[in-house]
Structures are given as structure tokens and as C-alpha cells.
Design a protein that fits this description.
By secondary structure, this protein is mostly helical. It contains two helices and no strands. Keywords: Coiled coil.
Length: about 80
């Protein structure tokens, strides 16, 4: 949606030269590439956080299982 708004906002005025039109097109393509790179970086960071959460959850689960096993051993 934002990109579409920028396209409308950056539409060349009547009487613009072809050079300025192509400059705008290049600028918009650069903005698009920057957005895609930022989105990819954000997705990668999200994936790393999810992996860290899963590892922490597995570690906590292992500790709980170990404590559960010790408790059963003492009661015998």
C-alpha cells in the first residue's frame, strides 16, 4: 500500500522531461530494493528469535524432566 501511494505521489508532472521520469523510476526501484532487504532481515531476525525460544523451551523441559526423575527416585 505504501509503495502504491509513493508511485502515485511520485508520478511525473505534465511536461516533465524523460530524464526526470527515469530518475524517479530508478529512485522507486531503489526504495523497493531497500524495503525488500529490510523485510528479509526482519524475517531472519524473527526466525533466530523463534529458534532461541525453542532451544530455551527444550532446555527448561529437560530440567523439569530431570527434577521429576530425581523426585521419583527419592520416594522409593
Amino acid at each position: 500500500l505504501i509503495f502504491e501511494i509513493e508511485l502515485v505521489a511520485c508520478r511525473p508532472r505534465k511536461g516533465s522531461t524523460m530524464g526526470s521520469v527515469s530518475d524517479e523510476r530508478v529512485r522507486l526501484e531503489e526504495l523497493k530494493k531497500q524495503r525488500e532487504a529490510a523485510a528479509a532481515l526482519k524475517d531472519e531476525e524473527k526466525k533466530k528469535r523463534e529458534e532461541a525460544k525453542a532451544a530455551a523451551a527444550a532446555k527448561i523441559q529437560a530440567k523439569l524432566e530431570a527434577k521429576k526423575g530425581k523426585g521419583k527416585g527419592k520416594s522409593k
